[in-house]
Amino acid sequence: MNVKRPLLLMAVVYVLGVCVSAGECGFVLRGAAVILSACLVFHGIKKKTLRKGALALLFVLFLAGGLRYRMAARAFQRSEERIRIFSGMKVRLCGEVQEYTEAAGKAKLRVRNALLSSAYGARDTLPASATAALRARYDQPVGTILVYMETGDAASQSGKWSEKDRTCRAQSPSEKQDRDPTADRHPEASRPLPGERIEVYGKISPVEAPRNEGVFDFRLYYRTISVQGSMYGTSFRVIGGEPKPFARGLQELRLRMGDILDQLLPPQDAGIYRALLTGDKSAMDEDIRSLYQENGIAHILAVSGLHLSILGLGVYELLRHFGRSKAVSGSVAALLIISYGILTGCSGSALRAVLMLLLRFLAAAIGRSYDMLTAMAAAALFLLWKEPFMLFGAGFQLSFLAVLAIGLCHVLPAPKHPLLEGLWLSFYLQLLTMPVILFHYFRFPLYGIFLNLIVLPLMGCVIYSGVFAVGLFGLSEKLATIAVGGGHWILRLYTLLCTHCAALPYSSLLLGRPSMHSILLYYTALSVVTWALAERHAAEHVGQQRVRRYPVQTEIPVRESSVSQSRRSRWVQQLNILPDPGKLACRLPLPCIVLPLLLSMLCLPAKQPQGLEITALDVGQGDGFILRNQGLVMSVDGGSTSDQRLGENVLVPYLESQGIGHIDLALITHCDADHYSGIQYLLEEEPKMSIGELLLPRVAMQDARYDALRDAAAARDVRIRYFGQGDCIDLGEVEIRGYYPVGTERLEVANDHSIGMLLRAPDFQMLFTGDMDEDCERQMLAALWEADAGYPKIDVLKAGHHGSHTSSSEALLAALRPDYAILSYGVGNDYGHPHAETRERLRRYDVKMLETGVMGEIRITVSSEALRGL
Fold this sequence. Notes:
Elements: H1 6-21, H2 26-46, H3 52-85, E1 90-103, E2 106-118, H4 132-135, E3 140-150, H5 153-157, E4 196-205, H6 218-224, E5 229-241, H7 245-264, H8 267-278, H9 286-294, H10 305-321, H11 326-343, H12 348-366, H13 372-386, H14 394-409, H15 418-441, E6 443-445, H16 448-473, H17 477-503, E7 508-510, H18 516-542, H19 562-575, H20 581-587, H21 590-601, E8 612-616, E9 624-629, E10 632-637, H22 646-657, E11 662-667, H23 673-685, E12 690-697, H24 707-715, E13 719-723, E14 728-731, E15 734-740, E16 756-761, E17 764-768, H25 774-788, E18 796-798, H26 810-816, E19 820-823, H27 836-844, E20 848-851, H28 852-855, E21 858-862, E22 867-869
Parallel strand pairs: 3-5, 10-11, 11-12, 12-13, 17-18, 18-19, 19-20
Antiparallel strand pairs: 1-2, 1-4, 2-3, 4-5, 6-7, 8-9, 8-21, 9-10, 14-15, 15-16, 16-17, 21-22
Helix pairs in contact: 1-2, 1-3, 1-13, 7-8, 7-11, 7-16, 9-17, 10-11, 10-12, 10-16, 11-12, 12-13, 13-14, 14-15, 15-16, 15-18, 16-17, 18-20, 18-21, 22-23, 23-24
C-alpha cells in the first residue's frame, strides 16, 4: 500500500462499510458511501498506489465494517424485543454493577450482563404446565441497562458508607403486611460498587425512536454508548459479587471529588466543575449549559482531548523536566490518563483522546515520529470495532472532526502570527463542523470562532484549580477554597462573555437541520477547497515544481521521474483531458476556489416548504398542528397531558429543526391543557421563540380560565385576538374561516369552546374541530350550510376529541365526506381514545385513518394544484 497514511485510508474504508450497512444513514448517505468507496479504489488502481494485497485488505475492512454493524444491530434488536415483553410491568433486574454516579439527589447505575424477570415469583417455582410466554418472563438476558433512582438525604449528603448499609434496612411489621416484593424494599443509603451483583426492582420500558422530527433520539443515543435500555428503579439490594479494587477506588474518588466540589463551590460552579473533572453533567445548571451551547463553547464541558492533554501532557512534561526518561514519563502519564478516562465514564471523545495520547507517548518512548491523523485513524478503528453505533453520536463526530481540522491545517496555508494562526485554525474547525452542529443542534454560534480564542487558553487554569482544590481539601478547606478561586473567576468571565455575545445580533443563527443532500454537497465543496489550498501551499514551497501531497508516493517527492511524466502524458493524451488539476488549482484565483464552498453554504439552512404544509405533531394525549405557507407559520393548539414538558421536549426541537424561530399566529381552540400547555411554555419560558399573535375562541373574552394565557401573552407583548364564526385568517393563497363558536356568551363546558374552522387551499380543504361533541358539530354544519349554500367536500378531517365516540358524528361524516381523518392521541391513554365506535364510523364512510399514536408525526404537503403527499 504505497500511501503516506495507510491506517487513515483503512479507517475511512471501514467507516464507509459501516455507513453502507447502517439504516441510520439513509439512502442518500449510503449511496454516497458506495460511490466514495468506488472512487478510492479506482484512484488507487489508477495511480498504482494500491496493489492486489492492499485492495484485498481494504475489501475485507469494508465488509468487516458492514458485518460488525449488522451484528451490533441484531444484538440491540434482540435485547429490545426481550425488554418489550416486560413493558409496563413491575420487574426485577439482576446484573453486575459497572458504574455508579450520583448528583442532586439522583443516582444512575450502569448494570451489565443484566437478567430481566417479573418482580413476582421465579422460574424455578413455575409449574411444569407453565406456557412458554410465562416462562419468557424470567431470566431474559438484556445486555447493559442504565438504572435511574432517587437517593435519600443520607445518601446524597453524608458521603460516608459502612458495610452494614450494604443490605436493605429492617422494616416494621406494619410495613411487611403487603407481601408485594417491590413494596418491602426501599432505596438504601448505600453506594453499590463496581463488580458487585445487585437486584433492582422497578419498571422498564423499551426505548422508542423519536416520533417527531428534531426530537432527541434516545434510542440511538443509548446505542452509541452500548446500552440496551433504561429502567427507573424503586429499590435495590446487593446479592453477591466482589468489588473490583481498581474500579472501586476510581468510583470512590469520583464521588468524593463531587462531594468536595459541592462543599467548596456554589451550585452553579460545582455543576461545571463536576462536568469538567468527573464527566458528570447531571448537576449542571440548565441555563449555563444552554448559554455555553448557544455560544459555541459547550465542548469544554465534555471530557475530551482538551482535558486529557492538559493533565496527561502536563504530567509528562513535568516528569521530563525533572530528568525522567521518555519511557518512564510516558508510562506514568499513560497510567494517569487511562485511570482518568475510566473515572470520567469512558465517553467516545475521552476514549479517542486516551488512545491518541497513548500512541504519542509510545512514539516518543521508542523514538518514532508521531502523526496525529494516523493516531486518529487508529483510535477510530478501535472504537468503531468495539461499538459501531458510536459513529452516529454527536460527541464522536465533533471530536474526530476537530482532530481532523487540526491535522489538515498543517498542510494548508496559515498566517505566521500566533494569534492569526489560532484564529485561522478556529475558523477552519468551524467550517468543518458546521453541518454536524446544525444537524444535531439546529443553531450555529457565529461568534464562537472568536470566543474560543479566549476560552481555550484559560481552560488549563480552570482544570488545574479544580484538581489542586480537591487535593488540598484534605489538608485545609481554606487552602482548597483559595486554589479554586481562580477557576471560579474564570468561569464568571466565561458567563460574562457568553452573556454579552448572546446579546449581539445574529449571535446564534437558527438555520434548522440541513438535508443529507446539502451536507454531502457542502463537504464535497469543502474537500475540493481544502485540496486546492493544499496544492497551492505545496507549490509555494517548491517553486515551480509541485509536490503531490495526496497520495505521497515517495518520502521526498521533489522531482517526478521521467517514467511517471511519460505515463501521465500518455494518460492525458488517451483521455484527451485538460491539464493537471493540481496545476489548475495553483493558477485559479482564490475567489474562484472558494466560491463553490460559499454557494454550498447557502444550501445548508432548512428548506421552506413549496406550497402549504400541515404537520400533525405526535404530542401524546393532546393536539398540536403546525401550518406553513409562503413563509408564514401558524400553530393550531399545542398541548399534552401525557407529556408535562411538551414545549421543551417536542415543540421547541421540532420548530428549531425546521428553522422556525417565530410563530406568526398561535391559535388555541379551547382552554383544556392538552391543547395549550406547550404554547403556554413558549410564552412563559422560551425567549428564543417568539409569537406574533395569539388567537382565542370568542367565548374566552370573559372567561377566567384563559387568564394564564392572556397574562403570558401580555408579558411578551403578544397581540391577542378572538376568533369564531365569520372570522377569517389569510395565509397567502390559503384561507382559514371560522364556523364555530357561534356567539360570545360564556360556556361552562370547555370542549364547547372548540373553534371549528375550515382551511381552504387550491384543490384542498381541511376541517379542524378541536374537542367538539355532536351538538357542537351540528351547529357548525348549520353555519357551513348557511355560509356556503351547501356542504363542502373536504379532503382531511381533524377528528374531534382525539377520536372520542361523542365526536366525528354520522351527520358530520355524511355531510362532508372526508377522504382522511387525523386522530391525535397518546398510546395507552386512560380514556380509551380513539374509541371503537369512532373507528367503525370512519370505516363505514371509507375514511382513511392517520393516527399519531401509530405513525408519529404526520405531514401533509399541498402544492398549488393538488394534494401532493401524506
